[in-house]
Amino acid sequence: MVRRSLLAVLPMAAALGACRPDAPAATLPGPRAAGNGSPVHGEAGPGGLRQAGVDRPAQPQTHAVVSVYDLPPQAGPARVAARLGEAVLALTAKPGMALGVDGGDLTVTVGLGPRLVGPAVLGVPGGLELPAFAREERTARTWGGDLLVQVCASDPAVVGLADTRLARALAAEGASGRWSQTGFRPPGNGPVRNLLGFPDGIENPRTRPELDREVWLDGPGPLADGTIAVVRRLRIDVTGFLAQSAARQEEAIGRRKADGAPLSGGEALDRLDLSAKTPRGRYLVPAMAHARRANPNATGSGRMLRRGYSYRNGPTDQGLLFVGFQRRLRTFTATQRRLDDGDDLMRFVTATASGAFFVPAACTPERPLGSSLLGERR
Ligand code: HEM
Questions:
Q1: pLDDT tens digit sequence for 288-319
Q2: pTM of the model
Q3: Cα dist. 132→94, 129, 178, 258, 338 in Å?
Q4: What is the CATH number of the domain that holds 368?
Q5: 141 by DSSP, 3-state: which?
Q6: Domain tally for the chain?
Q7: pLDDT tens-digit profile of 316-348?
Q8: What is the DSSP code (8-state) at residue 271?
Q9: Is there a contact between 326 and 334 (Cβ–Cβ < 8 Å)?
Q10: In principle, which of 19, 139, 236, 331 could form an S-S bond with 319, CB 3.0–4.6 Å?
Q11: Domain that holds residue 181
């Protein structure tokens, strides 16, 4: 069994760069550390600037909005992405000026959809197109999309103001909104409870080597310092799930509700022991428990960084705004397929919005957003 202390593996942004590292001093914000009260777009990675809101701040802010847009067919994607990047830099460098309020720990993360990132770039058939999965309520408006904008902050007003500001910048370029969803997470350090009452986000890559191996793409090339985001709005039949006995709920997840400890034994943050059995030969983590089904040993895939938010649009439309970051789309698709084949939690879950996006390196005034992929036409 692997024991880990969350406190030991959550290094708070040791050396974070600014989003404008080489701009003149008059406009240059000092080095920023996401989560310490300074808005951030870009943070120094091994070779360049990575976008914030992926693995930094290490503890996700308590509020978020995810918005997905389409570009008009005639729009030059390079130009729109560059303009969006400028708006993001203005927001995170001078939030007081851009928003009229203190930006706090605001982060903005932008992704480019499958139409903008062709299959050739990723080197995998289908590129960023997600296949069909079970229990999906597809609508033309909520499936796919050209641009992903994720805004996170501790203050929901800051989230709303920043999202409104970015929506205006995109509308000026002819982009149209597809769907948008606000989300929230309880405050806390480490995993926090979801709408089913279970601690969520326990099993995630956390250390720098894990994150570099599982989440970030390395260079050289257009993908360097990028990652792939999968965003899905997952409606949960919360009433139905909670109507089960407490023991049945825990069997559906594979962990205890009180503290998240694995049903195979151990403490709150321990990994599952998938081989542990009762004296009568039954798995302690049941065969259809969600955490067993999603475990990379079972899926044969890499690990994803799950950084989702709960959402609640009313008693019959609530659930998880799933946000997962990984360096290969297959990590998500292989996991989701395995959940589709049988999972005692997924019986209560329906996807109502979905998309995959490439999150390119962070932008600077000198390097427009997405320019490594889309070129620099402005
Ligand atoms: C409404 C939908 C979902 C809910 C409420 C949910 C909740 C949970 C909970 C409570 C855990 C156990 C604690 C933890 O390790 O975080 C967990 C684990 C996990 N979930 Fe989900 N989840 C959902 C959907 C998904 C989806 C769509 C995927 C990916 C396709 C996914 C991937 C994982 C993974 C990889 C783990 C860790 C498994 C391991 O122990 O290795 N989950 N989830």
A1: 999 999 999 888 899 999 999 999 999 999 99
A2: 0.91
A3: 42, 10, 19, 35, 13
A4: 3.30.70.3420
A5: coil
A6: 1
A7: 999 999 999 999 999 999 999 999 999 999 999
A8: P
A9: no
A10: 236
A11: 43-374
